[in-house]
Amino acid sequence: MSLMEALRSALQAIGANALRSVLTMLGIIIGVAAVIAMVAIGSGARARVNDQIRSLGANLLIITAGNVQMGGVRLGAGASSSLTDEDARAVKAEVEGVTAAAPFIRTQAQVVYQGVNWSTAVQAIDNDFFAAREWDVPTGRMFEPEEMRRGEIVAILGQTVARTLFGADDPIDQVIRVRNTPFRVIGVAASKGQSAFGQDQDDIIFVPLETGRRRIMGRNYARDRSVASIFVKFGEEATMASGVEEIRALIRQRHRLAEDAEDDFTVRNLTEITNTASASANTLSFLLAAVAAVSLLVGGIGIMNIMLVSVTERTREIGLRLAVGARPRDVLAQFLIEATTLASIGGAVGVALGLGIAVSIARTAGWPVLVSPESVFVAVGVSGLVGVFFGYYPARRAARLDPIEALRRE
Fold it and tell me: What global pTM score does this model have?
């Protein structure tokens, strides 16, 4: 029997019991769909995490002021202004591997341009901030050192603010009002997109640190030259673990904390946060892989079961084939091809279903859909191998039938 004849016979046998064949393929369909969804979701989630890592800036720590105790009550991070821009300069100068230390203060403020009114985040920074966050200013320019020193009333807009206030117009050298203070726009920052916490990072206005303290944030920040937080960027990730301890020791020394006193600041490794998110995506992928493996196993057992039933139902047909000259290996090949065809059709349907699930989940979660052609071929190939593996025993049993005994059966 030729391959085409065997394939035609397999399709006829599958079509003769269409409902039974569909039910048999369900396990394979679910298993392959889970494989495709696993690859798409896992790859999309990792791509999303990588985008968030790039938007934050690589090898980044954040030092947050606060974590103090007053009257027996622990106030937590951000409760006091315990950090200063001098702390940032000391960290950059004295901690090995630090390439940028960016103090900043952040608040929410109303901004007005002509008839447009918008509430946005205002961040008072120095130029190290853009280096630490790997944030470019492609339109206009960054703050000049003299503007930072004198506290000039100038601003750099995020993409969302620029689009909201000016639409398609050029904002450079235009004057906006932030809490009734006129600021001249000198630049527009590049788009950063959504943060890991779902916030629009482009909905922001940057002003010089000294300007923000005196004009927007209030007298407390201006009087003691304090800042809310400091971004610290390392040149290499390998130096970050030791750098955390160096930073903690340096700031404790600068704040003259006793040995038994708690830190009045908090140091967080943002790389660890993104690694945790990546690990969560991998866990989801492993979970789906387990579902796929179980489904394929169940589908394979279903194929074996239906093929054994088919051998029993077609005993006389097998006996007749053997009696008229068919060789046992021809019968073996016929039933193996039938089992493989059944599994491959289920695999193809599973691929289509998996792609649909992947697209739906990606749209809901806002992830990109990443399905490689290799994963599709592997999924269909594995389903075919499942058909061969689980179809071999029924096919072998059919091939070893005695033609005389087979023809005697009713």
Answer: 0.61
